Amino acid sequence: MQVVFEDRVIEICDFAGPQNTIEGYTFNNCFVRGPAVIVVQNDTFSNSTFQGDPEAMLWPILPPRTSVIGAILVKDCTFERCVFSNVGFAGPPEFIESFRSQVGGAP
Fold first, then answer.
1. Which tens digits make up the pLDDT trace of 11-56?
2. Which residues pair with 72 in a beta bridge?
3. DSSP assignments along 21-66, one per residue
4. How do residues 59-78 score in pLDDT, each as one tens digit?
5. What is the rounded CA–CA span in Å between residue 5 and residue 18?
6. How many helices (H) and strands (E) does the chain have?
7. Helix ranges, 1-107 (H)
8. Rounded to whole angstroms, how far apart are CA atoms 6 and 26?
9. 97: three-class secondary structure by DSSP
10. How far from the centroid of its chain's Cα atoms is residue 90's Cα?
11. Burial of 26 (0-12, 13-18, 19+ CB in 10 A)
12. pTM of structure
């Protein structure tokens, strides 16, 4: 059963727990607040808004690097109509390019 949060202010760090992982949540119409850098894995972002400079919020993880310390893994989550503030997004170059097209950053 997936846990759903609606119409709330979400301090994203509070959801990470000791394993720095957020998995299997749905957030509808939430204000998602950092400071945080998240590594996205199999997540869906629909009709969401990302506050800030797109290039400053995107953190490429370049090969051969396969892990990071200090970031929050967000896995199998859905974000519908959310606003993200002071949140960075990290991932491999393919993810960065795909996400950049969603948030309107430079090519």
1. 999 999 899 999 999 999 999 999 999 999 988 999 999 999 988 9
2. 38
3. EEESEEEES-EEEEEEEEEEES-EEES-EE-S-HHHHEEE--TT--
4. 999 989 888 899 999 999 99
5. 21
6. 2, 11
7. 54-57, 93-103
8. 8
9. helix
10. 8
11. middle
12. 0.89
Mean pLDDT for 82-107 is 85
Residue 27's nearest CA partner among 70, 87, 69, 68 is: 87
Residue type, 11: E
Tokens at 105, concatenated = 């950053």
**Amino acid identity at 94:** E
Task: Check whether 106 has a pLDDT greater than 60.
Answer: no
Distance between CA 81 and CA 10 in Å, rounded? 13
Identify the H or E element spanning 86: strand 83-91
Question: CA–CA separation, 60 vs 97, rounded Å?
Answer: 9
Amino acid 1: pLDDT: 60
CA distance 3 to 69: 26
- Report how far residue 7's alpha carbon sits from residue 52's, in angstroms, rounded to the nearest whole number: 21
